[in-house]
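=== RUN LOG ===
request id: a7f3
mode: sequence -> structure
chains: 1
length: 128
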Amino acid sequence: MTTQVTKGIKISVKTSFEGTFFKNYKMHFAFGYTITIENQGRDSVQLTSRHWKIYDALKELEMLDGEGVIGKKPVIKPGESHTYNSGCLLASPIGAMRGHYQMVNFTTTEKFRVHIPTFKFSAPFALN
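=== RESULT ===
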C-alpha cells in the first residue's frame, strides 16, 4: 500500500491486476485501484476535482482532469474517510499513476491541493 499526507489529508492506495483482454486486435492490461482519503485535520473538507498523470511503459504520458471522484464530490469530516474503487487500462503490463485532488476547507474556504503519491501497476507475470 502506498500512502502520503498533505495538509492533514492522508491518501492510501492499493492496486490490483484484473487481467488481460484483446480489443481492436490489441492486448490491454486492466488494473484496479482502491483509494482511501482520510481527514486527519480539524476542519471538514470537500474534494472538488482530480488530476491524473498515467504512465504506460508502451505509450506516451496521458493526463486526465475531472470533477470529483466516481461522480461524487465527497465531504469528509475530521476523523472520517472516503474510499472508492476505480481502474485503468494500459497497453503494457507495467505502468504507474500519480496526481492530485483539489479540495476546499469548509472553515477557512481555502482551496488546496492534496498530492496522490505515485502508485505502480505490474502484472504478476511481467516481473520475475
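=== NOTES ===
The longest strand covers residues 9-23.
The two ends are 20 Å apart (CA to CA).
=== END ===
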